Amino acid sequence: MDPHMEFDFGGGPGLEDQANAAAALASALMREAQTLAQAAAGLRACLPGPTDAGPLSDIRRARIVAQAASDAALRAALLLEAADCLGSPDAAQRMARAAERAGLPAATLVPALRAAALALPTDDGAARIAASIMAQELAQALG
Q: How far is CA 60 from CA 32, 42, 65, in A?
């Protein structure tokens, strides 16, 4: 083998790899949103009804459970919107606007994006690399 031979690997993931990465990240975000929505539904099912009697401490506990359910539902909705943004050239700006509308900092999406990149439902190595790059770039843009 000639030691002076140069290899060109194309400079990184191609357009198809990036599209596959966006789809895989979106799928992972949607699965996380589903988990959060199920948690919200489960928490709401634990809330007492209007005719249930109980001491004052039960009201305080119910308020905490209701707040946790609300937070889980809000984050699920935000992840669904973030999944819709993936693959577009202005994904970071759209995600930041969605977080702002939800009353959350844009950085709230960073852990979910990183986790999605780690839990991709694919064995496509190029898509995994592209997803890691995409998640890192979005994380930097979202702060």
A: 29, 18, 9
57-88 pLDDT, tens digit per residue, is 678 888 999 999 999 999 999 999 999 999 89
**Tokens 């039960």 label which residue?**
58
Distance, CA of 80 to CA of 37 (rounded, Å): 11
Could you tell me where the DSSP H helices lie in 3-55?
15-45
CA distance 99 to 75: 9
Residue 54 has pLDDT above 70, yes or no: no
Residue 41 CA to residue 138 CA, distance in Å, equals: 30
Distance CA 37, CA 53 (A): 28
The pTM (predicted TM-score) of the whole model is 0.83
CA neighbor of 86 nearest in space, from 27, 126, 39: 27
Q: Are the C-beta atoms of 129 and 13 separated by less than 8 Å?
A: yes
